[in-house]
């Protein structure tokens, strides 16, 4: 069962875990990306390409479900303004095999960083700057191609 | 007519999120569209001066800048993505 | 920051995530093991070696913190009777680097299966049986020795 | 005097969770302790008949059955662990 959400509402980690547990299997892996307060950042803003984001996240979840034995996969990505410490993205996988759950979770967060049309902007008080893409995210995503 | 979408600092430089455009017939690839847009005014010049900083999607699929526009209806131009 | 708990109370996944987020870093990985309802199991019972469990879990968390760059690590293991769908164990790691968080999480759950003195007993109505150790858990734990 | 702890089905077969025992001087290793315990009654015979099914800890550290008891105060005997 695949669940994808692009939402302004805060992540509800307990609810996402409960929904994944409905699949009845033995293990749930998750990764949550959080807003860091580095360099005096006060607010993070996430812009998306509406329409394309949901479709790309669904495709990533389907690819993970083809590659690993998953009973369920969830991707929730927030958009709009968020505070330091808030969750930006939640990726969760449920599987009878813990290695499958953990690897699929790593795959999803790595690919999401390069394959989903979101853009981060950091605010420090009244000043803002668009976050630059990182080369290490490209190589993290590519390692799944060579396997 | 093409629907062109701009995101992040490209949107801010251009000063709009979306527009309908009919580029000249000489524009057949995404890169040529970017080059042509760069001549359309000050904000455009700023946004499209360095194609190396840009990424694109045709009809909501990522493409490299050298692909033909073909029969695409929606072109999006934006910086490399930074979600997650 | 290391947090270890062996408890009868249900896992509180949201609270564990909030505590890990206090570390201020960008990512939290977690793995939650759940009671499966296979083969008509109605209740799972967990027995521990009191005193030794807490120390072994703390040692595992310390080993993970030496091996990966972690801002925080949490291991919570339930004991006593639990119902189908309940969480048995929660492993959570916080890191500035998502690969570190995910790998350390995989390490902790793999090692915990072989290095912590817990025993599972499955109840099917009034009948019970002790769960047998699985060879695949030994090999999953050993893969971390050869790296 | 040794404190001996039993867990899981070993505890159930023996019929107790813990006891204080002074084994004979000929018992110097964990395996020898297991062999001696197997002679201490019906439940013990059942619990300790097959040392291959048993694991042990000395003073709360896992050990293999061939190690000497040494100056350990607490010996635990149990099946392979199945937590997590």
TrEMBL record, chains A, C:
CDD domains: MoaE (cd00756). It catalyses: 2 [molybdopterin-synthase sulfur-carrier protein]-C-terminal-Gly-aminoethanethioate + cyclic pyranopterin phosphate + H2O = molybdopterin + 2 [molybdopterin-synthase sulfur-carrier protein]-C-terminal Gly-Gly + 2 H(+). GO terms for biological process: Mo-molybdopterin cofactor biosynthetic process. It is an enzyme of class 2 (transferase). InterPro entries: MoaE_sf, Mopterin_biosynth_MoaE. Its EC number is 2.8.1.12. The keyword Transferase applies. It holds the Pfam family MoaE. Pathway: Cofactor biosynthesis; molybdopterin biosynthesis. Converts molybdopterin precursor Z into molybdopterin. This requires the incorporation of two sulfur atoms into precursor Z to generate a dithiolene group. The sulfur is provided by MoaD. PANTHER family: MOLYBDOPTERIN SYNTHASE RELATED. Belongs to the MoaE family. This is Molybdopterin synthase catalytic subunit. It comes from Stakelama sediminis.
TrEMBL record, chains B, D:
Pfam families: ThiS (PF02597). GO terms for biological process: Mo-molybdopterin cofactor biosynthetic process. GO terms for cellular component: molybdopterin adenylyltransferase complex. InterPro entries: Beta-grasp_dom_sf (IPR012675), MOCS2A (IPR044672), Mopterin_synth/thiamin_S_b (IPR016155), ThiS/MoaD-like (IPR003749). Keywords: Nucleotide-binding. GO terms for molecular function: nucleotide binding. PANTHER family: MOLYBDOPTERIN SYNTHASE SULFUR CARRIER SUBUNIT. Belongs to the MoaD family. This is Molybdopterin synthase sulfur carrier subunit. The lineage of its organism: Bacteria, Pseudomonadati, Pseudomonadota, Alphaproteobacteria, Sphingomonadales.
